[in-house]
Each structure stands twice: as C-alpha cells, then as structure tokens.
Design a protein that fits this description.
about 300 residues, alpha/beta, 7-stranded parallel beta sheet, two-stranded antiparallel sheet
Amino acid sequence: MDSVRASIHGNKPDVLPYTGKGVGIAVLDTGIFPHIDFLLPINRIAAFRDFVYRNPGPYDDHGHGTHICGICGGSGAASLGRYRGIAPKSHLIVGKILDRRGNGNLPDILEGVRWVIATMSLYHTRILNISAGTFSPRKADSVLVQAVNEAWEAGLVVVAAAGNNGPAPMSVTAPGTSQKIITVGSSDDQKPVYIHGEKISGFSGRGPTSEQVSKPDVTAPGCYIMSCNNRLFNGRYTYTPRSGTSMSTAIVSGCIALLLEKYPSMTNNDVKERLKDGCQDLGLDKNHQGFGLIDLARFL
C-alpha cells in the first residue's frame, strides 16, 4: 500500500487531509477478520452480516474480504502506518456472501446487495465494493447486473472488478459488465503473478461487453498488494500480498471515499464523470485501461 499510494499520487499535500471520515464503504466478499487496523484508534466495522453460514460476529474464513477491507480502509496500526488503506477513517459495512473457498451462490449475493441498499441510510453507506465476478449462465449474469443497477439507482456508487480472465476481448465478468456502475481493471497486469495458485500475466478482464459497452472504466495497481491478513501469526496482526483486479477495485473504492468526504453532495453519476479527468492515460487500448490509471491528486 505504501508503493500504491506513490503510484496514484496519494502522498501529495492536497490529498493528505482527506481520510474518508464519515463515508461508509460496503464490502460484499468473504467477510472481515477483526484486525487491529480496523479496531484502532476506533472500531470502524460498523456492521457485519453473514449470508452464507449465518454466524453472528465478524470473521473471515478465507482472507480475501479482510484484504479488500484493509485496502479500502485499514488504519495501518500494525505497520506503523506503512500499509494503511486509502481511506483509513472510513467505516466498513461488511456482508459475507462468499464461503471459505471464495465461492458464492446467486441468492446469497442478491440478499447481500439488498441488505446494503436497505441499510444505506442507517450506516451512511455511499460506496458498494464488489471485488468478485462470474461467468455464469446468461440468466444469472443478467440478474447480477440488475441487482447492482438497482443499487446504483438507489444512489450508491457501485464499484466492481473486471475479473482476472483477460487478456481476450469480452473477458470482463459480471456484474462488472453493467453499463451503469464503475468497473475496475488492473493497471499493472503485465507483471506475472500467482492467482489461485496459477502463474499468469495479462489477467485483467477486457471489454467490450456482449452489449458492446467499453469496459473497464478505470484501472489501479493490482499486483502484489500488501494488506491485512485474516489470522494472527505468533500472536501478532500481520499482512499478506494478494494480486488481481479485486485489489484494484478496493483501491478505487478508497479513492472515491476521499472524494465523497471532500464533496459530500456528489452523486454517483458525478463520481463516474469525474473519472474522465481524474486518470493518467497509460496509452493502452480503452477496453484495457478505460480512462487510465486513477490519479488520486487529480481525482480530488
């Protein structure tokens, strides 16, 4: 996260005053481990709901969700600030929709999206982060896209991953195929990384979609991102590296939290429009980079 902040110009003086304070980020994923980065200086896990096993308290039996939450809003307490998230004073509304293997089913995902919509006023939720995607039967794809479209129409800024099935055209996964929402790819996917135990490169999902919509909308770093681990090591809170467009998505969600702290009256459409001028053109095809690499200083 220290190198991520540098690459997206997140260390510039005009950026540093903003922390995401008062902005709720909903994360639908594998859950959240109560890492010290979410508990100090105050507990910022505002809500947790388990749609898979129906367990009461916050936990993460996989690790992906905790990693995502750390990128969005970890305080960096266990690393003296080195690995803090993009919006370290934002609060987190976490729904567990994926099991211990990282798999999910449609009813749980839909229930999670509806829960976020229903509670958005209660928890001051502005952003919905979905760092998961699927190639599924056409009907399931359309249901997922319809669900995130409903969240967008309710006023949430929905941010979803482009998926790790690139580099072929039409490789963006649902619900990132939605025309309404913000879809995020990896800006550095030329690096070889291990995802699900397989060494790959050029993994970031590319458009167009089957409806000929250009995707993704924006990119962010996605390779070897160091963020919160879901277990203690020798009694200590630790960090671990992960790669994929999931990580890129969480970076963009954190950046949007800072923008909404600075401009709280912005709508989701305003935020999406802002991306046009808030990115650095990488010189890649639009269906690879969208508007380019998010530039946090310019974005704000």
